[in-house]
Amino acid sequence: MENSSLLNLMAILIGIYAIFGFSDAILLHLWKFQLYKFSETRKEHLLHSIRAILFPILILGMLVFQIKGIYLFAFLGFIFTDLVFQIWDMWIERKARKIFGGLSSLEYTVHGILIFFHSAFLAVFIIYNFQMNHFSGEIESIFLLEDSWATFIGWNLLPGASMIALLHIILIHPYFTTDHEWERFFRFRMNIPGLE
Q: Does pLDDT of 2 surpass 60?
């Protein structure tokens, strides 16, 4: 597989991950379950907020910029940090979600899909950088990738990912831990199978 094909495959995998991530973060975490509101789930919301902040940076480092040498190793450290927060989130989720009777079947399924696509795009990222010899210490640089499907997808994912990160940050404010009259207009009323 050519290097540009690997880059485009990575972009497609990140795009699919972003679609499922949007469904999980916005529809389930913030709208349906309002994880930011309850003391039992506030830590989980904080972890989701950190990961929401990290995701636009992942998009930049994988699809918009070409990173080589020591900078690539630093970026891999950043990816590792994101994985640590992901594992921490999974570790506390069971206890945090007891107030809802645990995770719904739909959310378990979405999380499994997210883990698959996250692992897949990380694997393709590492393979791509090995093929391009970017781990070599001879050349250390960061520059914009040439126009490709990957950069097109990256630039188009960036605004939405940034807005979701901002929304997570805003909802950390204590104001949102109590019910307000205006919220009745935004109640989650969808009947989705597996969400009982």
A: no
Q: What would the two tokens of residue 131 be? A: 């093929």
pLDDT at 1: 45
Distance CA(131)–CA(129), nearest Å, equals: 5
Nearest CA to 149 among 6, 19, 18, 22? 6
Q: Are 176 and 36 in contact (CB under 8 A)?
A: yes
What are the angstrom distances between the C-alpha of 60 and each of 24, 123, 162?
A: 22, 17, 11
Give the containing element (helix H, strand E) for 67. strand 65-67
pTM: 0.88
Q: Does residue 115 register a pLDDT over 80?
A: yes
CA distance 37 to 135: 44
Instruction: For 153-167, give the DSSP string.
Output: HHHHHHHHHHHHHHH
Q: Which amino acid is at 119?
A: S
**Beta-carbon count within 10 A of 180 CB:** 8
Cβ atoms of 16 and 116 closer than 8 Å? no
Count of CB atoms situated within 10 Å of the CB of 3: 12
Cβ–Cβ < 8 Å for 21, 118: no
Query: Angle formed by the axes of helices 3-22 and 42-59, to 10°?
Result: 150
